[in-house]
Design brief:
The protein is α/β, with parallel strands linked by helices. The protein has helices at residues 33-43, 57-64, 84-90, 113-122, 191-201, 221-232; strands at 2-6, 27-28, 31-32, 48-53, 73-78, 100-104, 107-109, 127-133, 141-145, 151-156, 167-175, 206-210, 215-217, 249-251, 256-257, 262-264, 267-269, 274-275, 280-282, 285-287, 292-293, 298-300, 303-304, 309-310, 315-317, 320-321, 326-327, 332-333, 338-339, 344-345, 350-351, 356-357, 362-363. It binds guanosine-5'-triphosphate.
């Protein structure tokens, strides 16, 4: 069966991490997120994948090529202006020849696709939406279903007294090709606000498939950090074999750890990483290729992309540091802060409270404190 992955969004909530690369290409445990999604699809027997692209599509195409290296056949369709989730699927119509899957490209899940397909077929659905439970239903669009799974209504961001379910649209669909007839061509159109409500109005067989398996959307900085924690602690079942978990520490070729450094897993170190004397790395943490952790520096629950340079006594806690960034001596970066590609953070700065530093910025010594 074919799958369409929607990867055309601008990822505005994740800026500035998405200034240079689209959201699906952000590294998760040193691999582009989309690579994890594609390996999940392959595990479920999906080999033909169509990428519906827009924003910064060239970064995706350059990395994945024809897909053979990743065990799939990839087709690319690029829209010249954003068409939305449904418009993006209509735009790949020429590749669709039967029942097909659609995936939002920012979701990591252990959903059983075979079981969902069986559910879809048994009910003769024209569309089946995967549903996932959330703790705070007031922040989402809820999907109310009958006991057999037939969608009864959509409730957008309900008040507490309107809450009748905690299930939301999980961004994975099985669709029959006839659905495409209900999507206008070359027009911005959404599944969530356009296609599904209108199918419901027409009385078409629209079903919700609930599952409480692992599910996360990496659309915000907090969730981008959280997905690392989840993967490294083994919560994502299909990644347990390929990514070290628990207390494991893995290091790529050419990585050098000074005997006076301490590392507590789960920690993934890329290739050519240098960890100097007295440094402490505490997992879950990921340190990308070519990074240098200076003497007495501390990395705790942080994500470092490639070629990050830390001076002496730097502290990084629960933060993201982009490619080729430098953090000079005695600086502290914590509290979900983001330092983008190519930044230079001078000595004795303290970045905290989810502050976001745009690419290539330079912060002079002693300038920011919280
Ligand atoms: P935000 O700007 O932070 O909301 O992120 P986003 O642009 O990625 O939007 P959202 O998280 O709602 O998108 C869900 C999925 O649909 C993501 O995988 C997006 O890449 C994809 N997507 C969103 N808009 C479009 C679009 O206009 N065209 C295509 N092809 N995909 C889209």
């Amino acid at each position: 069966m074919k799958a369409v992955i929607l990867v055309g969004g601008e990822g505005t909530r994740l800026r500035p991490l998405t200034v240079k690369a689209p959201k699906p290409m952000l590294p998760v445990v040193n691999r582009p997120f989309l690579e994890l999604v594609i390996s999940y699809l392959r595990r479920h027997g999906i080999q033909d994948v169509i990428l519906s692209m827009g924003y910064r599509s060239e970064v995706i195409e350059e990395y994945f090529g024809d897909g053979q290296r990743f065990g799939v056949n990839l087709a690319y369709v690029v829209e010249s202006s954003p068409l939305g989730t449904a418009g993006g699927v209509k735009n790949v119509e020429k590749y669709i020849d039967g029942t097909f899957f659609v995936f939002n490209g920012d979701i990591l899940t252990d959903l059983d696709l075979g079981a969902m397909l069986q559910f879809h077929r048994e009910r003769g659905a024209c569309a089946t939406l995967a549903l996932t439970p959330v703790d705070d239903p007031t922040a989402y669009g809820l999907v109310e279903t009958d006991p057999d799974g037939r969608v009864r209504r959509f409730v957008e961001k309900p008040r507490p007294d309107q809450i009748t379910t905690n299930l939301i649209n999980a961004g994975t669909y099985i669709l029959e090709p006839e659905i495409l007839e209900h999507i206008p061509p070359d027009t911005y159109y959404m599944f969530e606000r356009g296609v599904f409500p209108s199918l419901l109005d027409r009385g078409s067989p629209l079903f919700g498939y609930p599952s409480d398996c692992y599910w996360i959307d990496i659309g915000t900085p907090a969730r981008y950090i959280a997905v690392h924690r989840d993967v490294l602690s083994g919560r994502v079942e299909h990644l347990r074999e390929s990514i070290p978990i628990g207390t494991a520490v893995t290091a790529g070729a050419g990585t050098r750890i000074d005997p006076g450094a301490t590392i507590n897993g789960p920690v993934v170190l890329g290739e050519g990483v240098q960890i100097e004397a007295g440094a402490r790395v505490r997992g879950p943490a990921v340190i990308g290729d070519g990074c240098r952790i200076g003497p007495e520096s501390e990395v705790d629950g942080a994500i470092l992309w490639r070629q990050v340079r830390l001076g002496a006594r730097v502290v990084l806690r629960e933060c993201v540091i982009g490619n080729n960034a430098t953090v000079d001596d005695d600086s502290v970066i914590s509290g979900g802060a983001i330092v983008s590609d190519g930044c230079r953070i001078g000595c004795r700065n303290h970045l905290d409270r989810a502050v976001r530093i745009w690419p290539d910025a330079s912060i002079a010594p002693n300038t920011i404190s919280f």
